[in-house]
Amino acid sequence: MTAFTYERDLDHPVSAEVEQTIRDVLKELLSSQGLEGVLVNPGLDHDGDPVLFVHLKFRLVKPGIDPEILSQSTISVSRALWKMGERRFPHLRYDFHDDQRILGTENW
Amino acid sequence: MALSSDLIATARQLANVHQRRPRQADLRRSISTSYYALFHGLAELTAGRLVGSTGASQKSAAWMRVHRNLNHLTAKKACSRPELQGCSQGLAQFLAAFPRLQELRHQADYDPAARFKQGEALSAADDAERGLAGLQAAPRDEQLDFITLALGMTRS
């Protein structure tokens, strides 16, 4: 369970099919960016709406992670979930290595 | 969209204040600022489309009322409306970024146990920038469809 999921949220289970779809989409998209683990938990967002909290664990990647590919991940997961009738929004939380660089952000 | 663009720059600066050991306070403010860049960008576009985008329009009471009428919850729910499925890639970028950053912003602003890393703050700023660019690039009819839903106009 991730730090941002509480016991009260476990009343809304995630089907194995939904969880596998999320893993498949993210693996295809983000394996090249260092993705090494995905954890899916049902929950409620800050307004109390049912959502899916998706925790993505990354290993350190050099020279850095491509933010353009990263930005596609929520869109790709959402589209895949809508196709299978899953309406909960997938909240992707990126757990990068402490020293991870994001390409294109070095000059700020 | 001057304010929203400036907020993205601020978010990046905050994420990079301490390169080696970023402070949680800076990362939290960075993430919160990235969300508000999206929110203000949406408010600016909404007022611009419904009232006008000339200098005179932006000084009118009507422009200000529309700008201030945008509500965080209603706008978030609009992002998941079935009418918007199958929209352009540009609008899809915004619809994905807005709820994500709103939730992150709540964690950053209110959850004392939450911990953030620099990469996450920088990717949030990038998401905000891409989301805003996508919203601006979306076809006008899609923009109008979305902004009316974001204002809570769901009857048809």
Q: Which terms summarize this structure?
A:
A: alpha+beta; Alpha-Beta Plaits; three-stranded mixed sheet; B: 156 residues; mainly alpha; 8 helices
Structural class estimated from helices and strands of chain A:
alpha+beta
Task: Write down the CATH topology of chain A.
Answer: Alpha-Beta Plaits
Q: Helical percent range of chain B?
A: over 70%
CATH superfamily of chain A: Cation efflux protein, cytoplasmic domain
Helix proportion of chain A:
25-40%
The count of domains of chain A is 1
**How many domain units of chain B?**
1
Q: Look at the structure and give the mean pLDDT of chain B.
A: 95
Radius of gyration of chain A: 14 Å
Which radius of gyration of chain B do the C-alpha atoms yield? 16 Å
Distance between the termini of chain A: 35 Å
Q: Widest sheet of chain A: strand order?
A: 1-2-3
* Model regions low in confidence, pLDDT < 50 over at least 5 residues of chain A: 1-9
Largest sheet of chain A: 3 strands, mixed
The two chains with the largest interface, and their residue counts, are: A-B, 33 and 39 residues
Query: How would a crystallographer describe the biggest sheet of chain B?
Result: none
Percentage of residues in DSSP E strands of chain A: 15-25%
Provide the succession of SSEs of chain A.
HEEHE
What is the name of the CATH architecture of chain B?
Up-down Bundle
CATH architecture term of chain A: 2-Layer Sandwich
Describe the structure.
The complex is a heterodimer of chains A (108) and B (156). Chain A is α+β, with helices and mostly antiparallel strands and 108 residues long. Chain A has a single domain (7-95), classed as Cation efflux protein, cytoplasmic domain (Alpha-Beta Plaits, 2-Layer Sandwich), CATH 3.30.70.1350. Chain A is 30% helix and 24% strand. Chain A is built from 2 helices and 3 strands. Chain A has helices spanning 16-30, 67-83, and strands at 35-44, 50-58, 89-95. A 3-stranded mixed beta sheet of chain A has the order 1-2-3, with helices on one face. In chain A, strand 2 (50-58), helix 2 and strand 3 (89-95) form a beta-alpha-beta unit. Chain A is elongated and about 40 Å long. Chain B is built from 8 helices and no strands. Chain B has a single domain, classed as Four Helix Bundle (Hemerythrin (Met), subunit A) (Up-down Bundle), CATH 1.20.120. The model of chain B has no long low-confidence stretch (mean pLDDT 95). In chain B, helix 2 (24-50) crosses helix 6 (89-110) and helix 2 packs parallel to helix 7 (118-137). Chain B is globular. With 156 residues, chain B is an all-alpha fold. Classes of the chains: A alpha+beta (108), B mainly alpha (156). Chains A and B meet through helix 2 and strand 3 of A and helix 1, helix 5, helix 6 and helix 7 of B.
